């Protein structure tokens, strides 16, 4: 629902029953092992990386509870869906392995995802109709399920933030593909994915592509505009015009070219290309 935005859905395993303590997470405690499974920096300032490093890179936490058959009540009082989530994430007092196993995933979610939202869904229809769910018209679905679905979709479509990297850089679809490839290749090799290294690798790819696009635009523009014989002043004006166009194209795609290495390469390459295009004339 946001102009010039695309929502990407990636399927993963979900959460388990909140009442089952250590089985709260389906993925063998994946959230509790984040600091072992990924790194933010290639070299941490301290031995243990601060949770705040992770928070900057993580999205908001939206908890969708399906087949919800309980009442939204806590100690007999009506509560909102968000209050139900916060209660599910509340920590138990005490010591011992059971208490620790119960609290750890909840504490990690609270630390890593400070912004949280909850939606509960009742069973969509009668049990005997569930096997034909994909063929049922909306009129045969539970009205409260349909409303919950609409509320959920509206929230996701309207409130989802653009993924960003350190420095506020927005991630495009192309960048997301590059990041995903880097993460998967790193995991397959047996190493620990590092956000900082992945961004550096992505920046190299993006800036090299930005340079090529700029040079291509310069070359094609000059070829189309040249009409020999030309005076030196006319050639200089056309060179300046298409050099500016090339730089604008580069700047739109370039990413974290902090030392202006690639921009300088573009600035050096256009005069050489100009010479090749005009020397034979």
TrEMBL record:
It comes from the Eukaryota. Residues 1-161 form the GB1/RHD3-type G domain. Coiled coil: none annotated. GO terms for molecular function: GTP binding; GTPase activity. InterPro entries: G_GB1_RHD3_dom, Guanylate-bd/ATL_C, Guanylate-bd_C_sf, Guanylate-bd_N, P-loop_NTPase. Keywords: GTP-binding, Hydrolase, Nucleotide-binding. The keyword Hydrolase applies. Belongs to the TRAFAC class dynamin-like GTPase superfamily. GB1/RHD3 GTPase family. This is GBP1 protein. It comes from Polypterus senegalus (Senegal bichir).
